[in-house]
Amino acid sequence: MSNKHKILDAILEQGMLPLFYQDSESGSVEILRTLYKAGVRVFEYTNRGKSALPNFKKLKEIRDAEMPDLYLGIGTIKTPADANAFIEAGTDFIVAPIVNPAVAEIANKIGMLWIPGCMTPTEISVAQEHKAMLIKIFPANILGPEFISSIKDLFAGQLFMPTGGVEINADNLKTWFKSGVCAVGMGSKLISKDVMSKGLYEELFDNTKLALDLIQKSK
Question: Which InterPro entries does the record associate with it (predicted)?
Answer without folding.
Answer: Aldlse_KDPG_KHG, Aldolase_TIM
